[in-house]
Amino acid sequence: LKLCFARSVTMPTSHRWLPTLPESERVHDIALDHSGGRLAICTSSHRISIYSAPSESAPWVETGRIDEAHAAPICRVSWAHPDYGSLLASCSEDGTVAIWTPTGRASGRKSGSLLGSAGDSLPSWSLRASLSWELSVAIVDVCFSPPVHGCKVAACSAQGDVRVFECMSSFDLRKWDHEDLESIAHPLSTGGAVATLDWRGASLHDSENETLVVAGRTGQLAIWEKSGRRGRWAEVASVDAHPEADGVQDVAWCPNLWRSYEIIATCGAGAALWRADFTNVDSEFRRVCKVQLLETLVSSTDDTCPVWRCSWNLTGTMLALSSDRQALSVWKSTASQSWKRDEEMVARSIV
Residues 6 or more apart from 171 whose CB is under 8 A from it? Predict the structure, then answer.
């Protein structure tokens, strides 16, 4: 069961079903854009479908499709901030990250695969860049950065490598530079692979430093940071988040509008919230970060485990979890800064 919150909409009070996909297709990931009006879905058939809904009451309609987007199954999709237009990134087991933009032209009616759910021809999407590693390894997660850092996209491979790509000019999406997150003490590069990553959003306390959280199959979570445009990426903290079998399945950095500390959600054999406190620089002019367990939401012995995905709302006051047995739970922050499961919202979501 996949889920995602839109970046700039509140939690819906009702649900709208998407058109049914063929039984032979398996959904690997879904991603809402920042307005919540478009939804990208990648499937086992190497295809990306774009659905749109003009209003909260309107049905979802397929408005775009990319057939054979990759040469292997697609793992994740991610939308860029609208400051950079309609950019969509996808990553695949074929070892590439693809950057897509809509062309605005209809694909035509040459085959049934080019017709939308309403029977009309679909606008085509154009491949603007294909980004890859030197070695052909599966790319398992991809995520665009907050716009304050420029047009950047972070990706991680199945071998435990993390790379940050940057488009040097918004007028030429074919040219991308890259940086690798390298460290002798990298907890994810030995004994296990990276499974997921997420950017720290813009913060009132710190708008210059770029920060990533990466987590892997070993169950470890690591925070990496880059100070300024000329700085280098360095690991500033790590912790054993889910040391059980299969490790961390997903990680989500909580939007921070007022807290003096950061919150990171992780899920796998259970789900937990982690508190991250950033302090002044150390003797090597690197910031110090202390990570500690804030609250366990789902224990590893819960019958709904494993928990596959976690997603925050815009204000960082609600967290959605999707777990085994098609279970969906929503957790809300209380006045005492603890977290409580919202049973009523769960009931409305699955009815």
Answer: none
pLDDT of residue 287: 74
CA 187 – CA 222 distance, rounded (Å): 7
- 18-24 long-range CB contacts below 8 Å, 24 or more apart? 18/51, 18/60, 19/60, 19/62, 19/117
Q: 24-103+122-192: CATH homologous superfamily?
A: YVTN repeat-like/Quinoprotein amine dehydrogenase (2.130.10.10)
Task: Report the Cα–Cα distance between both ends of the chain, in Å, rounded.
Answer: 15
Kindly list the domain boundaries of the chain, sorted by start residue.
24-103+122-192, 194-350
CA distances from 235 to 9, 181, 201, 213 (A): 33, 8, 18, 10
Q: HSE-up of 172 (CA within 13 Å, CB side)?
A: 6
Q: How many CB atoms lie within 10 A of CB 350?
A: 11
Same fold, 24-103+122-192 and 194-350: yes
Q: Do residues 259 and 273 touch, judged by C-beta distance below 8 A? A: no
Q: Measuring CA to CA, how many Å separate 302 from each of 142, 249, 291, 299? A: 29, 16, 25, 5
Token pair in block for residue 227: 């100070």
pLDDT bucket at 346, cuts 50 / 70 / 90: low
- Please give the CATH topology (third level) of the domain spanning 194-350: Methylamine Dehydrogenase; Chain H (2.130.10)
Tens of pLDDT, residues 16-34: 666 666 666 788 999 999 8
Which residue reads 């998407």 in tokens? 18
Contact 250, 199 (CB under 8 A): no
* pTM (2 d.p.): 0.85
Where is average pLDDT lowest: 187-191, 211-215, 272-276, 319-323? 187-191
* Position 229 confidence tier, pLDDT thresholds 50, 70, 90: low
